[in-house]
Amino acid sequence: MTRTDFDYVESESPGTGRLDPRAALTSDAAVFSLDGDWRFRLASGLTDTTEGLENPDLDDSAWDTLAVPSSWQMTGLPGETRYGAPAYTNTVYPFPVDPPRVPDANPTGEYRRTFDLGADWPATGRTFLRFEGVDSCFAVWLNGIRLGDGKGSRLATEFDATPHLKAGENTIAVRVHQWSAASYLEDQDMWWLSGIYRSASLVHRPDAGIPDLFAHADFDHRTGEGTLRVESDADGRVTVPELGIDIAIGESATVAVEPWTAETPRLYDAVVASGTERVSLRIGFRTVKIEDGLLKVNGKRILLRGVNRHEWDPDTGRTLSVETMRRDLEIMKRHNINAVRTSHYPPDKRFLDLCDELGVWVIDECDLETHGFVHIGWKGNPSGEPQWREAYLDRMRRTVERDKNHPAIIMWSLGNESHTGDNLAAMSEWAKGRDPGRPIHYEGDWDSGYVDVYSRMYADHAETDRIGQKTEAATTDPALDAHRRDEIPFILCEYAHAMGNGPGGLSEYQRLFEQYPRCQGGFVWEWIDHGIRRRNEDGTEFFAYGGDFGEPLHDANFITDGLVFPDRTPSPGLLEYKKVIEPVQIAISPSGQTVVITNGYDFTDTAHLRFTWSVEDGGEGTASGELTVPAVAAGQTAFVEWPEPLRAAASPEAAGDASGERWVSVSAVLVKDEPWAEAGHEIAWSQTQIDGAAAAAPTRSTTEAVVAGREISLGAATFDALGRLTALGDIAIDGPRLDLWRAPTDNDLLGWGGNVSDKWVTREVGLDRLEHKVLDVETADSGLTVTTRVGAASTDLAMGAVYHWSTDTETPGRLWLTVEITPEGDWDFVLPRLGLRAALPKTLGNVTWFGGGPGEAYADTRAAARVGRYSATVAEMQTPYVFPQENGSRIDVRWAKLADESGNGLTVLGAPDFAFTVRPWTTEDLAAAKHTHDLVERDRLYVNLDQALQGVGTASCGPGVLPQHRLHAAATSFTVGFEVPVR
Ligand code: GAL
User: Fold this and answer.
1) What phi and psi values does residue 719 have, to the nearest 5 degrees?
2) Fold of 582-689
3) Architecture of 301-578 per CATH?
4) CA distance 665 to 687
5) Less crowded by CB within 10 Å, the N or C end of the chain?
6) Catalytic residue list contains 417
7) Domain 214-289, CATH
């Protein structure tokens, strides 16, 4: 073996000995799976590789075994890794940028196995060796003969094995290199993982079979007819029994059909048969066009309510089971998501079958990203270098050829973050020629010379608004500018970075998408946190992120920025997104006693939905029923009068004596089971308050505060000599005092594009270490007044905080506290929160509240918060962000009771409401923690009662908190009540 034997590793060439790419087809031709255990050895570099790896006689009995498909770095997890370790970088290459060269320290996996195709394997025809995905570069031998080599980690590769196959035992050997020239083209923001991580197989190709085909299935919305034509080099017939179609390959048939859309994924089973092979297809008839400057399917503008999906599993990395793929789509569909961008590579082919079946619009993206060149000013970026042309075209061909028969795919994407260059333009040109039926997407081409949609990422609301109005800044070339401005639609291929707590500002984006026809929606970044399940020393499981495997260069938790946690539990961000993009809008008018229902679907009417109403009084249901709504056509609105039972239930007479706030809710649920959700699953909802004051105004008594030694008592309350509440009844309390800090969120910390977070995040203003100086404690007939100055070391900024305590005239055991706040000095930064913090006995861990819920909500993430009565344990009220940060605040809480197991405890009352957080650890603990297992419960509960919190925004990558959701220091006052039962 010489060094030149490895030339392919550092060659720009996409591979040698490979067969032309073709569609992934379901055929009755024989398939032999090579999945399962292979012999495996990890070499540290090329000089450490095995001489004679390909030799069938090589004794590999001492080698370990490794499963195909898998990535070798994931082996051994969640315990100890066995072969190298995952490593995470976002944009930087984890090796010197010197294309096409890669480091000598190039971990190389050597795989071997034997197989016997058996006596039944067809004796005629050919047999292809097929790899669905090998990361990043490999060479393959069969029975000692080299078949070739390949690159393109997320693309299929086939070799002709026929001449070298034997009856009986065959030996296959594969050498997989972690780094190769191809690594320069695969700089996606994800873990670097290697190996044969998708399935491998031998597939029989019968003589006179159907190696490839391209099914064109258009739909003419004017006639309601579909036209099917199957293009193939093979001879054979195409039948669609349900449609009575029986035509030759190459012929077309036009018949009345039900079209395929993401809302109505109507598929027709078809068979394409030659004399020797039958291929099964699922045909969806639809036509995608850019027309009138809009992206239209079947003649209609569609609105993309999308997500960017990487393939991820916390235990197996990018090797996914079909169940996991289905689960992703089920969760998406249940949360009103209708589109997926396969960021940033073609997914496992089975995922696309599921997209066809369950119904989502797909942008299928080529496996291409050269982002790391940005750090050297895009010098030598492969996108513009002729020696990479073939690799670019090869990747595009393999993307389109494999996936061309999926109705779900409505656009091809050239790749991601690879700047601009002729090679990209060439990919586009090739794809348009091969498949005129699908527009081309690529975000990096802002001038939009070779794309069919103007695509951007993280444009803020204001810019999106300008784009909607077509008043955005001009591009360099006037002709391109005119094309972009007038002829093509706009999408945000990435927006709303779902990292940690957030994303905030989704509602405001959605309004823009609804307002401007040109803005056809977007794809939230991203679907899932790529956390890796690990165990710490004491066996506690947690999700690892960049740096947790000792990588010298990494991008920390930027890898955990999904709408679902690594274990696919929906995050609050997903619940918010579901509400914001709900396809049906419901507006309840108490004055008109009507419900206005607007159908925001693009195609379907509302016949698949059942509408229900309910009336709640103080969070207790008093009546409910059905709302008869005629099927509302797509884009139409219906006005429905309240039915008599709802009128009666909502009438003033129906309000009981002890009436609290009364609310009417209307909900739209599935009539019947869908493949992705059961009947009764809620799609949309709305609620409106009909009456009841938010909360009774505090009635303050004139109870005297009494000083006794070092204590002060007032009604049921006991204070220390400095006027701090120490007990209420027999509940020990570390009394409430002003709190202005929160554990920074990812969005606070990363503050993107200059809207950096703030002086409070950098801690320079010391909100995290406030000192409370008591200036005066005044006991009077009407209660207790404590005057304080709250400031931090090193600064003279301060808040005057005056606490007025009094009892309640009507309710013994109740106290009112009004806090008056006066900023002193120049508070030229936003406040993360403004409120009170107290500590309570740990036993009060059962919480019931009336207000927003059930999940967390902040000023700009509150669409999904419903007013109601909720119960949860303190543990359940924590949101386990992979990187711990502020979480769990409930909004608009009118009252909250914290009780022990027997129901005794303390009630906090709003006047009218407050934002409510309770945790078993402090804010400081939360801010110091790097992983969930760093959070250790203390022996107290820590409660925050906030007048307001700063919004969340999405500045970890994108716009910060919108002005209307920012919290500024200002003179203010707020009131809360505390109540304990009196003995
Ligand atoms: C984009 C990129 C994504 C991801 C995101 C931030 O620029 O396309 O892959 O890195 O930023 O999470």
Assistant:
1) -120, 160
2) Immunoglobulin-like (2.60.40)
3) Alpha-Beta Barrel (3.20)
4) 4
5) C
6) yes
7) 2.60.40.10
pTM strictly above 0.90: yes
Q: Of 417, 508, 526, 856, which residue is the catalytic one?
A: 417
Quote the ligand 1 centre to 307 CA distance (angstroms). 13
How much is the pLDDT for 756? 52
> Which is the closest atom of ligand 1 to the Cα of 526?
12
CA–CA separation, 366 and 391 (whole Å): 12
Q: Is the pLDDT of residue 156 over 50?
A: yes
Distance 368 CA to ligand 1 centre (A): 13
Which of 88, 89, 90 to probe ligand 1 with, by most ligand atoms within 8 A of CB?
90
Q: Which two tokens stand for residue 163?
A: 């001449």
The question of whether 979 is a catalytic residue gets the answer no
Give domain 706-973's CATH architecture. Answer: Distorted Sandwich (2.70)
Residues 418-448 have pLDDT tens digits of 999 999 999 999 999 999 999 999 999 888 7
CATH number of 3-205: 2.60.120.260
Is the CB of residue 416 below 6 angstroms from any atom belonging to ligand 1? yes
Distance CA 373, CA 371 (A): 5
Pick the closest to residue 832 from 763, 735, 920 (CA basis): 763
Q: Is 90 in the pocket of ligand 1 (CB under 6 A)?
A: yes
365 within ligand 1 shell (Cβ under 6 A)? no
Q: How far apart are CA 717 and CA 709, in angstroms?
A: 15
Distance CA 501, CA 746 (A): 7
Q: Is 74 helix (H, G, I), strand (E, B) or coil?
A: helix
Enter the tokens of residue 572: 């609050």
Burial call 852-884: b when 16+ CB within 10 Å, e when fewer: bbbbbbbbbbbbbbbbbbbebebeebbbbbbbb
